[in-house]
Write a structure and sequence with these properties.
Blueprint (H helix, E strand, L loop, with lengths): L2 H5 L3 H39 L2 H94 L1 H9 L1
């Protein structure tokens, strides 16, 4: 896993990975202790056997066990890496879905607000036109009642 990938992981994920590594390290330490004890036993056997051929065979078993432990450790590290990459992808997919939902919701709300504003503007325009027409009618009635004022206005 690259440094960049580690930097983008949450603390919880990092703590979980560290915890897994510590558990594996403890298991490997126990296995090393067991293998060391086995090695000591084999050394005693080799010393007692006195045969170089028997010593080589005993040492070969120890090396096979050590190789198996190393292979197991590498497999576990690969597994942790794969699990972390999978979890990272799941988190990113979830975040992208949530972002899309938020954008969709904002667009719906913006459309609703726009429709409400258009309706209010139309309503206000109609009210203003009605008020203007009513005012014009009142002015006409006033001018009809005061004919001399109409004449003065017509001269202008």
């Amino acid at each position: 896993m690259t440094d960049k990938e580690f930097r983008h992981m949450s603390r919880g994920n990092l703590v979980a990975i560290i915890y897994q590594y510590q558990q594996r390290e403890q298991a490997l330490q126990a296995q090393i202790a067991s293998l060391t004890a086995e090695l000591n036993d084999r050394r005693i056997k080799i010393g007692n056997a006195g045969s170089l051929a028997e010593a080589v065979l005993s040492l070969n078993h120890v090396m096979e066990a050590a190789q198996a432990a190393a292979d197991q450790y590498l497999d576990e590290i690969r597994s942790v890496h794969t699990d972390a990459a999978t979890r990272e992808k799941e988190i990113m997919d979830s975040a992208n879905r949530r972002a899309y939902e938020i954008i969709q919701q904002a667009q719906v709300e913006a459309s609703t607000l726009r429709k409400q504003a258009d309706a209010e503007c139309s309503e206000l325009r109609e009210e203003a036109e009605a008020d203007c027409l009513a005012m014009r009618e009142k002015i006409e009635l006033f001018l009809d009642d005061h004919e001399e004022l109409r004449c003065l206005l017509d001269d202008l």
